[in-house]
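Lecture notes, part 5. Sequence design as translation. It can be helpful to think of inverse folding as translation between two languages: the language of shapes and the language of residues. The source text, in structure tokens, appears below.
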């Protein structure tokens, strides 16, 4: 069985092209990285596909914003690390060749680990990311660093009580300004968040802490990017951005919008795909990439096989 991915050389060529607008370029890179995320998980035989695909556009835009600035981006939920690894690999934060080693002996761990270059915090235990970014921002004050710090948390992860203690801390400490993205794909693990613990009035709860709040489409790259810029321009305390996303975004078979409200099991939270589903998903995204390139009159990226 051959697994397909797009090499770094082709991604770099896309990044350098001047034939398309900035956000169209990000759209193409997003499609390419969806293929590569699927590849890394399929090659590993395990990993968390659904949440990696829902968080990808958030990671991509945050990374782009921080590219020439001092700051940090990390994941609190952690199991979306295949997406973050892929983002890091195209920004000289991680050796691209390491993507072939996900969840293998002496390879990339399945959750963020500080032994990996440019990984700031371990994750695995949920609900700790907001506390960590609070501490990081406070440390910046004492070390006189002016950093722009961003964390991505999961909507299911917000059921952990430590998050709410961290929000209370931010309520009384407006001198720090962390940016907190909630990847709101509405599914935790393999079922609906509101079937486990319903906090449908999340907006009201966050606003009750007198914190900045915004709700956006978590796949609209211009909206994500603009929200990041607005937060750090205002710099008036923490901002929580609820990013509405689709779990499994990018492949019709895995997208949670196909997961009916009366169904209790979302099957693509973790693990690799069956071979026929993998082949169909790969064919689908490559067709999208090629059609996009044809429409924009740019050379399609090279596709490599790994077996």
């Amino acid at each position: 069985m051959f697994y397909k991915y797009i090499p770094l050389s082709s991604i770099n060529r896309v990044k350098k092209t001047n034939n398309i607008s900035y956000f169209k370029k990000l759209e193409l890179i997003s499609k390419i990285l969806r293929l590569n995320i699927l590849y890394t998980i399929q090659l590993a035989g395990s990993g968390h596909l659904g949440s990696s695909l829902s968080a990808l556009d958030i990671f991509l835009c945050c990374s782009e914003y921080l590219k020439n600035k001092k700051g940090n981006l990390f994941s609190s939920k952690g199991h979306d690390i295949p997406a973050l690894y892929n983002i890091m690999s195209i920004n000289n934060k991680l050796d691209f060749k390491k993507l072939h080693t996900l969840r293998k002996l002496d390879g990339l761990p399945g959750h963020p680990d500080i032994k990996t270059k440019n990984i700031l915090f371990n994750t695995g235990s949920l609900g700790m990311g907001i506390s960590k970014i609070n501490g990081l921002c406070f440390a910046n004050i004492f070390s006189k660093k002016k950093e722009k710090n961003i964390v991505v948390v999961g909507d299911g992860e917000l059921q952990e009580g430590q998050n709410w203690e961290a929000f209370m801390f931010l309520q009384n400490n407006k001198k720090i300004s962390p940016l907190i993205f909630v990847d709101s794909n509405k599914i935790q693990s393999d079922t609906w968040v509101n079937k486990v613990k319903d906090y449908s009035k999340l907006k009201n709860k966050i606003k009750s802490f007198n914190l900045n709040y915004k709700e956006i489409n978590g796949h609209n790259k211009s909206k994500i990017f603009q929200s990041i810029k607005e937060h750090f321009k205002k710099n008036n305390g923490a901002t929580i951005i609820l990013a509405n996303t689709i779990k499994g975004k990018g492949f019709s078979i895995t997208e949670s919008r196909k997961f009916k409200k009366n169904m209790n099991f979302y099957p693509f939270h973790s693990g690799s795909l069956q071979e026929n589903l993998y082949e169909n998903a790969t064919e689908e995204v490559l067709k999208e990439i090629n059609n996009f390139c044809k429409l924009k009159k740019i050379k399609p990226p090279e596709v490599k096989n790994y077996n």
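The translated text above is only one of many valid answers, since several sequences can fold into similar shapes. The radius of gyration is 19 Å.
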